[in-house]
Design goal:
Elements lengths: L6 H14 L3 H12 L4 H7 L6 H40 L18 H15 L3 E2 L5 E2 L1 H4 L27 E2 L4 H10 L4 E10 L11 E11 L4 H16 L5 E8 L2 E12 L5 E12 L1 H7 L7 E8 H9 L12 H4 L4
Parallel strand pairs: 1-4
Antiparallel strand pairs: 2-3, 4-5, 5-9, 6-7, 7-8, 8-9
Length: 337
């Protein structure tokens, strides 16, 4: 049976073993041997209940103090050994941590998104709101409600991407269906824009793509006229392209507007030629379209317009080819970041 006099030598042996440990493994071995579950100090503490009552207090107190002293020494020695190991690892590493790190390339907003956001800001400042709708649309909203006749070329599979096995369902060729949905959901006065991606079976060239970006707008109110439409289009063109932008309005035909016009602006192609480029189509909403959504054509008039964001970006930045915007070449796109 251990006595009070046995504790001090055990403590001193343990402290000496801790101090002599020169690796973490050696330190762990010293811990197990001197304060582990089967160590002499642990046996003394577990046997206190078998001592005479008068001895229990002094032996228990002294043994606990010895254990705490050894555990404190173990912690201090472990910290020192870990610090030494870290120092050795750093000394062996020839990396110069004072050198600047490799910069991470910063992301940027695509040029088409920049144009879209700027257009949205222009129209929001004029009192319009943004409306959204599905890119895969039914025949009624794509064509019928827009006054597109059954035999119109736009309905042909040679012009429009139809979904196989879904009668009349197609990728929207314009964002005009969003305007129909907006009129179905709200009564005049109504001022909305509908930006988004559209799809047409166009051959790819410098100014055409089967997938492109469009922003359409619709205004319905009492007393709106072609003069209001022209004022809106000219204001937007000047906001985007500058007050000195050279533009022209030319008569055109669209099934859902009458009269209809196209807005052309001056553009320099990759050969350096100054050409007129169609920027958007527009017109006064045909009363028949109002009939599909339950609007009173005797009371309300409206105008609609649709513009290609890709072409606006081309004109604004002097780009010779629309495909530059869609090829994902970072070397080109980062010029506009």
């Amino acid at each position: 049976m251990a006595t009070l006099d046995d504790i001090a030598p055990l403590r001193d042996q343990a402290l000496a073993a801790v101090d002599a440990a020169d690796t973490l493994d050696a330190l762990e071995a010293a811990r197990v041997a001197h304060v582990g579950r089967k160590s002499p100090l642990a046996e003394i503490l577990s046997g206190i209940g078998r001592l005479e009552p008068a001895e229990r207090g002094p032996v228990g107190k002294t043994a606990n103090e010895a254990r705490k002293a050894v555990e404190a020494a173990l912690t201090a020695r472990k910290d020192a050994l870990e610090a030494d190991a870290m120092g050795a690892a750093l000394a062996a590493d020839d990396t110069d941590i004072t050198l600047p790190g490799d910069p991470h390339p910063a992301g940027a907003v695509h040029l088409l998104t920049q144009v879209r956001w700027e257009l949205e800001d222009i129209f929001l400042a004029m009192g319009y709101r943004i409306a959204d709708g599905p890119e895969v649309e039914d025949e009624y909203h794509n064509f019928t409600a827009l006054n597109v006749a059954e035999g119109h070329p736009a309905r042909s599979p040679s012009d429009t991407f139809y979904v196989r096995g879904r009668d009349g369902v197609a990728l929207r060729p314009q964002t005009s269906p969003v305007q129909i949905r907006a009129m179905e959901e709200a009564r005049p006065p109504l001022y909305v824009i509908s930006p988004g991606v559209v799809y047409r079976r166009d051959d790819v060239d410098a100014t055409h793509s089967p997938m492109f970006h469009q922003l359409e707008g619709l205004a319905v109110d009492e007393g709106l006229s072609l003069a209001h439409l022209k004022g809106t289009l000219v204001h937007v063109a000047r906001e985007l392209l500058g007050d000195d932008v050279e533009y022209a309005l030319r008569p055109h035909f669209f099934p859902f507007t009458e009269p209809s016009v196209e807005l052309y602006v001056r553009w320099v192609d990759k050969r350096g030629r100054s050409l007129w480029l169609e920027l958007l189509g527009a017109g006064m909403v045909d009363p028949d379209v109002f009939g599909f959504v339950g609007y009173d054509a005797e009371r309300y008039t409206g105008f609609a317009f649709g513009m290609g964001l890709d072409r606006i970006a081309m004109v604004r930045h002097g780009l010779p080819d629309l495909r530059l915007l869609l090829e994902g070449d970072v070397r080109f796109l980062e010029q506009f970041a």
